[in-house]
Amino acid sequence: MPIFTPAQAHEFNLDSAQREIDSRSAQGEDMSWASINQFTYAIVNPQAGKDYTAQRNAHGNVIVCKGHEVRKSYRIIFTGSFADCRAYQ
């Protein structure tokens, strides 16, 4: 088993994560969102946690909803985390 310097090990781990992204993409999974965490080498989704919407109706009422489905008589005014959407209420 070869001994790697820390810099070589870092490059090896980054390459391994990139190969995983490429493999999943080749299998048909949409990996356009993917990025690699430089410290943990995990494949991360920068949009994670942004699956809530703040929606407003004609009367000015604002609701926070999970997902991107527009509720009847409302329109989406913001997309983000739950806490960010609550700021719009």
Rounded to the nearest angstrom, the distance between the terminal CA atoms is 58 Å
Domains counted in the coordinates: how many?
2
The counted number of beta strands is 5
Radius of gyration: 20 Å
What is the quaternary state of this protein?
single chain
Unreliable runs: none
The coarse silhouette is elongated
Taking the sheet with the most strands, its summary is: 3 strands, antiparallel
Structural class computed from helices and strand pairing = alpha+beta
* H/E element order: HEEEEEH
**Mean pLDDT, as a whole number?**
87
Strand content: 15-25%
> Which range best describes the helical content: under 10%, 10-25%, 25-40%, 40-55%, 55-70% or over 70%?
25-40%
Adjacency order of strands in the biggest sheet: 4-3-5
Number of helices: 2
Notable features of this structure?
single chain, 89 residues, alpha+beta, 2 domains, three-stranded antiparallel sheet, two-stranded antiparallel ribbon, 2 helices, 5 strands, 29% helix, 25% strand
Structure commentary:
The chain is α+β, with helices and mostly antiparallel strands and 89 residues long. It has 2 domains: 6-44, no CATH class; 52-86, no CATH class. The protein is built from 2 helices and 5 strands. It has helices spanning 6-26, 82-86; strands at residues 35-36, 43-44, 52-57, 62-66, 74-80. A hairpin with a 4-residue loop joins β3 and β4 (62-66). The chain is elongated. The termini are far apart. The mean pLDDT is 87.
